């Protein structure tokens, strides 16, 4: 696939943006005290891991952009127009998560964020979301968020807001 100069420039900017975000994450990880927790894994481990993987992705994107552009990329459905209804569901999930995390706890707010985001993504693909499916998505969100909460609070000793003071929910 022959790439235009404008397309190559835009793709290079995307790669450089990913590298820039990785750099900011790495700079933030340096600021985290490195007192090791369980098994020598401290609170800076996951930020360093995310920064490293994002930097690798940025390098790979940069190589691909400079060697002929992103290949075999299909335009997403709805690419010619904005799907504002789906965007509204995704944005509502993120905003509610940020608003409710201190009041409802990490697990419930993240589960709600997951359920609303999935609804928005399904709408973008033209799929219906009946009530039983939404309940299933909410329960799936709990199943995903609960181990994350446990990992951060119990293993990494990162204080996340919980619904109760027991440290388990």
Sum this structure up briefly.
By secondary structure, the chain is an all-alpha fold.
Commentary on this structure:
It is a single chain. By secondary structure, the chain is mainly alpha-helical. The protein folds into 2 domains: 62 residues; 72 residues, no CATH class. Helices cover 67% and strands 0% of the residues. It has 5 helices and no strands. The model has no long low-confidence stretch (mean pLDDT 84).
Helix content: 55-70%
Gyration radius, rounded: 20 Å
Q: Which residues form runs of ≥5 with pLDDT under 50? A: none
Total number of helical segments? Answer: 5
Along the chain, the helix and strand elements come as HHHHH
For the sheet with most strands, the description reads:
none
The average pLDDT score comes to: 84
Shape type: flat
Name the structural class.
Answer: mainly alpha
Strand content: under 5%
Q: Tell me the span between the first and last alpha carbons.
A: 52 Å
Our count of domains comes out at 2
Q: Number of DSSP strands?
A: 0
């Amino acid at each position: 696939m022959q790439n235009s100069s404008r397309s190559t420039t835009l793709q290079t900017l995307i790669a450089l943006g990913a590298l820039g975000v990785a750099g900011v994450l790495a700079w933030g990880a340096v600021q985290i005290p490195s007192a090791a927790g369980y098994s020598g894994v401290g609170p800076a481990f996951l930020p360093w891991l995310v920064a490293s993987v994002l930097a690798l992705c940025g390098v790979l994107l940069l190589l691909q952009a400079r060697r002929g552009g992103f290949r075999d990329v299909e335009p997403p459905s709805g690419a010619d127009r904005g799907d504002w209804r789906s965007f509204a569901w995704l944005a509502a999930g993120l905003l509610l998560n940020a608003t409710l995390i201190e009041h409802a706890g990490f697990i419930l707010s993240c589960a709600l964020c997951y359920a609303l985001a999935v609804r928005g993504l399904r709408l973008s693909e033209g799929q219906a979301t009946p009530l039983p499916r939404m309940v299933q998505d909410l329960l799936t969100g709990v199943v995903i968020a609960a181990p994350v909460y446990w990992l951060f609070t119990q293993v990494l000793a990162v204080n996340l807001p919980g619904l109760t003071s027991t440290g388990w929910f």
